[in-house]
Amino acid sequence: MGEIQEIFRQFRHGTGEWKQFIKSIKITNIHGWTGQEIRFDYPVVAVVGENGIGKSTFLKAAVCAYRNENGKDFYPSKMFMSTQWDEDALNGATIEYTVRIGDTQKNLKWRKTRDWGFSPKKNKPLRNVYFLDISRTLPLDATAGYAKIAMTANSEAGNGQELSEENLRELSYVLGQNYTNARFIGTDVDIKREVGLLTKDCGEISQFHQGAGEDSILDLFKMLQDIPTQSLLVIDEVENSLHPRAQRRFVQYLLKLARKKKIQVILSTHSPFVLEELPPIARIMLVKLSDRKDIIYEVSSKYALTAIDENEHPEIYVHLEDEEAELFFWEILKKDEQHYDEYLKKISTRVVGSCSVVATLNDLASKGKLPYKSISVVDGDMRENYENCISLPGDRAPERMVFEDLKALNWNKLDERFGIGAGSLFQYFEDAILIPDHHEWTTYVGNKVKKGKDTVWSIMVEEWCKQCLEENIAESFIESIRSKLYDNET
Question: What is the per-residue DSSP string for 375-440?
């Protein structure tokens, strides 16, 4: 069982449960938030959104929920400073929490009048809290006090600390290097300001000469080696200084750590590589609607990042559940040969995640809250559940419908399209549909015929549209898209 599934099992069913957990944070009158509440439904979550949307606002609020057993306390007065330019912006500001402590649930609140006050006034919950903001990525020689050490230190001082063999292996895996030792030591200049040293095939190198990724993540591993159970760990822009593979591996490490030590991890990110390592329930997207900011859950990594970095200016966006639905959508529109080039110019499709995300975006669009014109399209098997959305043809999941309908035609012409003998190819199809999860069918066939699953799906959908899609059903679907494109002006 993988880390993600094991965490699901433990978190949902109480095996070795997380006894300290922030369940939600509601922020009012801070940086444009007007009472929106963010939920945390998984022990490791990533918050994504464009710059300035307020990701750091929620991260800073999270660490203010507790009296810190680990070191200095975090206060809203420090995190959200009042200045002569924006003091009025915080008048009446509140931060409200729902937290789990053991088997009980408590409501906590910060409120700003002349100063910040916390309720309940007594018994503020205790927890080990770690907040790693963007300053952690500063090179060591740019950090206060370390330039002097770099220039004048002559000898080591103090007992120092070494990474354990287990954590050394994890560090080597994350960065893709073979480290044989990692240690931290003070100097005769300042025994308390420790310098990290890594040993690899070229010898021992201090943090003054390590790469940016090594420098920043070495300190992280030092801290995480001894992080207490049930801690809260908050990391702003977790991907900074890490290459894509290291980003993926570091998130995998955090998942393992969360499971073993029952810690809660809240990250902010702009990286698709970070999002892709987390389950949909762990992805939280902050968005700017036409009249307010809001929060969308379980988004696809593709949608989260394209919504932030989008250069297209289509006339309408189409929200779909996954890449299979996206390809299916375009293949149906090809039936309208007269207008297909026009659709390519005016429509942009977005894979947004589960059917519930599609429905959420449809609801926002119907209320005029999205900053763009859109259509939401669910798979055919979800038609009855989401009647307000347009649905793809059929009453089954697209993969089931395409495979099963083509099977009924004895896989007609597919051997020609794939360029493989019918006997072997058809057996691959027959074996694929025995797999319980229909999302795995194209991957199975692709592995057998040495093609990508997207290529397999493209061929099969094209043949299904030619051989199985009834003309009146295609026309009805296309008309529903055209009516939104041309008649539903917002």
Answer: EEEE-GGGTTT-TTSEE-SSSS-HHHHHHHHHHHTTTTTHHHHHTS-HHHHHHHHHHHTTSS-GGG
